[in-house]
Design goal:
The chain is mostly helical. The protein has one helix and three strands; from the N terminus they run H-E-E-E. Strands 1-2-3 form a three-stranded antiparallel sheet, covered by helices on one side. The longest helix has about 50 residues. The termini are far apart.
């Protein structure tokens, strides 16, 4: 029940309680904006992390392939496995071609990247 003062002035012991609708909406808008900024920043960081992981995996696979050549005298016909490396961060297998298209005397090793599609070097593919 609202207390009413007949003189129109509040006595010293009275205080305003609660927040107005405008104050509440303002705080909610500020919180929503901050959340959107944080979430978008996290998605960029996650994408960079996935790309860095794919590059590290390709480096591991490159070392395994080079070790295979040292031990056997030739590059493998298909992609050998490396410990802890099965698929790229987006769940797709890594790709290997021997001889390589760019360097026929060597090999090509790549991931199709986040979109999982062959962009022929124009998109987000990650290669050695």
């Amino acid at each position: 029940m609202k207390r009413h003062c007949p003189s129109g002035r509040r006595p010293a012991g009275w205080s305003r309680r609660g927040f107005t609708l405008i104050e509440m909406l303002s705080v909610m808008v500020i919180i929503a904006l901050l959340t959107a900024i944080i979430v978008s920043g996290m998605s960029v960081a996650t994408r960079k992390s996935d790309v860095n992981r794919a590059r590290a995996d390709l480096e591991k696979l490159r070392k395994v392939i080079d070790d295979y050549k040292l031990n056997n005298g030739a590059y493998p016909g298909s992609l050998p496995g490396a410990p802890g490396v099965t698929n790229d961060p987006w769940g797709q297998p890594y790709h290997y071609a021997m001889p390589g298209a760019a360097t026929p005397s060597l090999y090509d090793l790549w991931s199709f990247g986040p979109n999982g599609a062959n962009d022929s070097g124009k998109g987000d593919d990650i290669s050695n």
